[in-house]
Structures are given as C-alpha cells and as structure tokens.
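Onboarding guide, step 5: your first structure request.
Type a short instruction followed by the sequence, for example:

Predict the 3D structure of this protein.
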Amino acid sequence: MITEVVAVDPETPEEEAVARAVEVMGRGGLVAFPTETVYALGAAAFNLQALDRLYQVKGRPKQRPLIMGLDSAAWIYRLAVDVPEAAVNLAAAFWPGPLTIVMKRSDMVPDIVAAGGETVAMRVPGLALVRNLVAELGMPVVIPSANLSGEPSPHDAAAVLSGFDGRIEMVLDGGRCGSGVETTLLDVTSDPPRLLRRGAIVERDLLRYVPDLEVCV
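The system replies with structure tokens like these:
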C-alpha cells in the first residue's frame, strides 16, 4: 500500500482534499489528519471493518473505547440517551473545542467504538477540517491519536508517517498542530458529573457550568 499525502489548510480546508479523504473513509480506509491537539487517525464511525482495522494498525487494545468526532452538537441526541442538561450547556460553551464529553450511548453507537461499554465519548473538534470531513462523510469519525499504541502522539505528518507509512491510505498534511495538551475528559453519566482527565479546558472554566463537579484525577 502507498500512503497518499495531501497538503491541506486545516482552518480553511480545500474542497478537493476533503472530498478525497471522504472518498477514502467512505470505502473503509484510514486517514490521518490534524486536530487542535494532535494528529488523529480517522475512520468512519459506523464502518465496523474500518474500526477493526484501525485497532489492528494502531496496536490498540479493544478494551479501550474510541472518541467520536462530530461536526455539530446535534449528533448527541442521536448517539446518546438521557442527555443531561449539563451536557447541553457544556457543549454550547466549549464546542467546537478540546472538551470530550462521556454520555450514555444509544444503539446507534457500534459496540466496538464503546469497547462493549454503556457509554460513548464524543466532541466537536476545533479545526474546521475535521468538522468538514464529518459533514461530507455524513457520519461521525473516530479520532484516536495517529500513533502506534504506547508511542508519543504526533504533531506533524512526518511523525504520522514514521509509524504508518504504507499501512494507511492517506495523510492530510496540515503542518504542525496542537498545543501538546490533551482534551479534557468529562463524564456526565453520574450525578455529579466527574472530571476523568485534566486537559485544555481547565477546572475553573468547567465549574461555571458544573458547580458540583467531582474531580477524579
């Protein structure tokens, strides 16, 4: 396999680059692309064969669920059930952006995405590129970091290729990306909501919307 590398502007992505990546993911391929945190390895979230291959290529244990990237918060009413008011308020305040929200999943979410669990993690990424990919594909895209399991997360296309050249179909090269800070991970399935991972969205900002936030890290 030859890994195709396509230059793209992640803030104002070229239509041709987006269309090419969507075609690849639409037929079950894997595409790496920048997000506002690190490069992600994307696959169509409802394509079971693509998801299985993503786990294999990354060497990722299937006990670890995947984060779903969305193009808008409207998806949460399809992917989650019993959506709490806190989730709606947090999404309105911090999406698009580096906040990952964990909710009870609906039957639309494949078991492999949730690692067989009852919840799903999702966010609307800050870069227009990722949102455009989701919008054109017509479904969410899983967005784990584009690295071999256990290796450092990549911040440029060269780092992605060092692990995946010849093993994935495409890399969208948007230059160096990311702040080096992971997304904040917040579980709203419990009362009170729980902070599972500190990240780019800091606690003092979350407390404005979730004053009873339980910090578990």
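Each response can be followed by summary notes, for example: The mean pLDDT is 95.
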